[in-house]
Design a protein that fits this description.
Layout: E1 8-12, H1 16-27, E2 31-35, H2 46-49, E3 53-54, H3 71-76, E4 82-84, H4 89-102, H5 106-120, H6 123-133, E5 140-141, E6 145-149, H7 152-157, H8 159-167, E7 173-175, H9 177-183, E8 193-197, E9 201-203, H10 206-219, E10 223-225, E11 229-235, E12 238-244, E13 247-250, E14 253-256, H11 263-267, E15 276-285, E16 296-298, E17 303-308, E18 311-320, H12 330-342, E19 355-364, E20 371-374, E21 381-385, H13 395-406
Parallel strand pairs: 1-2, 1-14, 2-10, 4-18, 6-16, 14-21
Antiparallel strand pairs: 3-9, 5-9, 6-8, 7-8, 11-12, 12-13, 15-18, 15-19, 16-17, 17-18, 20-21
The chain binds flavin-adenine dinucleotide.
Length: about 425
């Protein structure tokens, strides 16, 4: 890697994307300042509460052909796995239309899968390397993940996604009902079929991992400024400063990686991008003694169950209700009910203090692809947000690509499908 001329790069946001980018920029010899109002890897970030899947096969965008038929249900059932709050509908409508259109045909879904696959393909290995460097190698495990279905027919009903996964090079093992009983003795026997994706991995503590990467960035020389960025100031098409709640920070280049909060920052230099929050939840049973042997997704509940160092975590739900609305904790209760349904030996009489609930914001573009590329106004401003459901798994590769974009080098994967200009 060629050492760069060592410019001053301000990275806005210290979630998984921001800290991975900062580390790669430091590696290139830049001076790096990270602007973050809260604790890196803290509960405010999606990177804290996610399911911890390093799922190299998560290449299928959220909307698939025919998703429009489910729209009445999204609106009618406020507690379904995907729900849109009525009061937010007028604001969300343009995003929802684009969301449905982006998955309108199998060809469009396949195009996104082909774009995402290089971003995700070797994520567990990249994360392992990064985590080892940060002294947190134990948090990354490469043991495969499983999707469990009530029946083979239920899996077949998902065949569009699995066929496209196969086309882009994902392979898996099918798990019969008997084998499932042996592998997962505590799982409810109604799950009769499974798919094991051996190449995928998992993170044992996403928040702790991001905190470790932030500490590593600091050790490599990053400076942290605890404040909120409000916008960018450009002069003659170049960023001269980042405007913050506590003053201006001068800079040569900027990376916007503030997750679901990135929209006004891009808008401050004229780029109005359709970034929305897909709000999600988790519940965690801290002292659970039973659960999955392999991290798994229940196809019926659309929920991932993963052991973390903080407890047994069930994460999922998509709620379109904006950044401001209060969480609906009934959604966390639904996850808890599903978890008890999946693992009947889990205790049902735990005191509320033994169950932790969390809510956060997936930063989502309508087409399920991140914005990873230059702003319209300046190639000295790089956008790295909108990673939706795959922000943890893709963060290690994203960090490398951000450094390549900032350095004006060729990127190691094709980034044209992620170009923010597709929406401008
Ligand atoms: C329930 C759930 C389950 C998920 N499961 C998975 C999974 O298993 N695997 C996976 O890969 N992905 C998963 N995701 C998605 C993943 O968590 C996100 O895509 C990813 O964390 C986004 O990272 P980020 O760094 O872009 O944003 P964030 O982690 O949200 O970080 C953004 C940071 O920017 C800071 N910030 C905000 N505004 C400003 C500002 N104005 N100035 C400065 N800083 C600011 C915030 O404080 C925050 O620390 C899940 C998400 C949810 C909600």
């Amino acid at each position: 890697m060629t050492p760069s001329s060592g410019q001053h790069v301000v990275v806005i946001g210290a979630g998984a994307i921001g800290v991975a980018s900062a580390i790669e920029l430091l590696r290139d010899g830049h001076r790096v300042t990270i602007v973050e109002p809260a604790t890196p890897g803290g509960e405010q970030a999606a990177s804290y509460g996610n399911a911890g899947w390093l799922s190299t096969h998560s290449v299928i965008p959220p909307a698939e052909p025919g998703a429009w038929k489910k729209v009445p249900k999204f609106l009618r059932d406020p507690l379904g796995p995907l729900a849109v709050r009525w009061t937010y509908l007028p604001k969300a409508l343009p995003w929802l239309v684009r969301y449905l259109l982006s998955g309108w045909t199998a060809a469009r879904v396949e195009a996104t899968a082909r774009a995402l696959r290089p971003l995700l393909r070797d994520a567990p290995a990249l994360h392992k390397k990064l985590a080892d460097e940060a002294g947190a190698g134990h948090l990354i495990e490469r043991q495969g993940v499983m999707h469990v279905y009530p029946s083979r027919a239920a899996f077949d009903a998902d065949s569009l996604g699995w066929n496209i996964r196969k086309l882009v090079g994902v392979s898996w093992l099918e798990i019969s009902a008997d084998e499932m009983r042996q592998r997962e003795p505590d799982l409810h026997p109604r799950y009769q079929f499974g798919v094991l994706v051996e190449e995928a991995g998992r993170c044992r503590d996403p928040g702790g991992y991001v905190a470790s990467l932030a500490a590593h960035a600091r050790a490599l020389g990053a400076e942290f400024v605890t404040t909120t960025a409000k916008g960018l100031r450009l002069t003659d098409g170049r960023p001269v400063s980042v405007l913050t709640e506590t003053g201006e920070l001068s800079c040569d280049k900027v990376v916007i990686a503030a997750g679901a909060h990135s929209k006004p920052l891009a808008a401050s230099i004229g780029d109005r991008l359709p970034l929305e929050t897909e709000r999600g939840y988790h519940v965690m049973i801290e002292s659970a003694e039973t659960g999955p042997r392999t991290s798994m997704m229940a196809s019926d509940a659309k929920m991932v169950v993963n052991w973390t160092d903080r407890g047994l975590r069930a994460a999922g739900q998509v709620e379109i209700a904006g950044l401001e609305a209060a969480p609906n904790w009934k959604r966390a209760e639904i996850l808890h009910d599903h978890l008890l349904g999946m693992f009947p030996k889990l205790p049902r009489d735990l005191p509320p203090a033994a169950i932790r609930s969390w809510f956060g914001h997936r930063p989502s573009m309508p087409d399920g692809r991140p914005c990873l590329g230059y702003s319209r106004a300046s190639r000295d401003v790089v956008y790295a947000f909108g990673h939706g459901h795959v922000g943890l798994v893709s963060s290690a590769r994203t960090g490398r690509v951000v450094a390549q974009l900032i350095g004006g080098r060729e990127t190691e994967i094709p980034v044209s499908p992620f170009d923010p200009k597709r929406y401008l």
